Amino acid sequence: MCVALGSGFLMSALLTACKTPLGVIKTSAKDDIVSIPLTEFAQTDYKLIRVSNYNYDLAIQKQPDGSYLTLVLKCTHAAQPLTKTGDKYYCTLHGSQFSHGGAVMKGPADKNLSQLVTKIVGNNIAIRLNNSL
Ligand code: FES
User: Fold this and answer.
1) What's the rounded Cα separation, in Å, for the pair 57 and 24?
2) What gap in Å lies between CA 94 and CA 110, rounded to an integer?
3) pLDDT for the residue numbered 21
4) CA separation, residue 111 to residues 20, 22, 102 (Å)
5) 96 in ligand 1 pocket by Cβ < 6 Å?
6) What pLDDT was estimated at residue 131?
7) Structure confidence at residue 7 (pLDDT)
8) CA 23, CA 40: separation in Å to the nearest integer?
9) Residue-level pLDDT at 132
10) What is the CATH number of domain 22-132?
11) Would you state the pLDDT for residue 22?
12) Domain positions in the chain
């Protein structure tokens, strides 16, 4: 839809508006570790991460104490990828809903979202994909 709109300046403005409105960072892992520069959080305390060859998006949240929390956006009912809706996550398969922090708000899911080990290493946030908390 974005490509079919207007031309010239208008087209340029619309395409800018169509770019990853949620600020999704696309990246890859090395040795099962994803590294995200801390500078990505200079203007925000939340980022969605899409890792190549990993089936689920990750939501990284900066915590009030300066640490980072990483949620795997995988429904805990039957492993459906979740959709971000406002500040919550929604499962389109059977309707489960999860809070911003990953807690179950509505079933049938009965477990909170998985969290990945996330540490600050130098000027980066390091997320270990194969080691949930
Ligand atoms: S897979 Fe998400 S509610 Fe069933």
Assistant:
1) 9
2) 12
3) 53
4) 29, 25, 9
5) yes
6) 72
7) 38
8) 10
9) 65
10) 2.102.10.10
11) 55
12) 22-132
Closest CA to 98 of 53, 49, 59, 52: 59
Residue 76 alpha carbon, nearest atom of ligand 1: 2
pLDDT along the chain (133 residues), means of 10: 38 36 82 94 92 94 94 97 94 97 97 96 94 66
Query: Are the C-beta atoms of residues 128 and 72 closer than 8 Å to each other?
Result: no
Counting ligand 1 atoms within 8 A of each CB, the residue from 80, 104, 110, 111 with the most, and so the one to mutate, is 80
For ligand 1, atom 1, name the residue with the nearest CA. 78
Q: pTM for the whole thing? A: 0.82
Nearest to 59 by CA among 79, 37, 88, 39: 88
Contact yes or no for 118/131 (Cβ under 8 A):
no
Beta strands 58-62; 68-72: pairing state: antiparallel
CA of 80, closest atom in ligand 1: 1
